[in-house]
Amino acid sequence: MKPAPLTVLLLPLFLALASAQCPNPADIKDDEGVKVCARMFEDSSPYYDQCCGGKYLDARPGDDMPYIPLGWNNRISSLVVATRCELTVWSKSGKGGNMRRFNSGIQYRLKELKQGLLGNWDNAISSYYCKCN
């Protein structure tokens, strides 16, 4: 039996990426059409097409939040940072604990990003700062 060509093996991955519900970093805007610096989602999934789900929190350019809005502490599981923007997050309120910077792009699953020796960034964001050029 012949091995399957690489394109056949990678096709499901490409289809999953193409159908992901995460917004394009160049397209994230609020309901009034104003550019958003980053959009943080409460849900992620092992499947790309089910990431960036549930409720979301928008960070506007220049937002400096040492205390994340009520109901969002340690709830963010995926995020999208707009083109030409950068999101800095901390694991503790008051910009304490571990810190990580995200440049423009999509982070489908924060649980894939290490935080310290044993932890990850899934449901671990407690403060943030977002800036755009």
UniProtKB/TrEMBL annotation:
Keywords assigned by UniProt, alphabetized: Cytoplasmic vesicle, Disulfide bond, Exocytosis, Membrane, Signal
Superkingdom, natural source: Eukaryota
Region forming the signal peptide: 1-20
Gene3D superfamilies for the chain: Crystallins
Entry GO terms, CC: zymogen granule membrane
Membrane topology summary: Peripheral membrane protein
Compartment annotation: Zymogen granule lumen; Zymogen granule membrane
Any one Gene Ontology BP term: exocytosis
Classification via InterPro entries: Syncollin (IPR028137)
PANTHER family assigned to the protein according to its UniProt record, in alphabetical order: SYNCOLLIN (PTHR17503:SF0)
Protein task: Functions in exocytosis in pancreatic acinar cells regulating the fusion of zymogen granules with each other. May have a pore-forming activity on membranes and regulate exocytosis in other exocrine tissues.
Protein name: Syncollin
Source species: Pleurodeles waltl
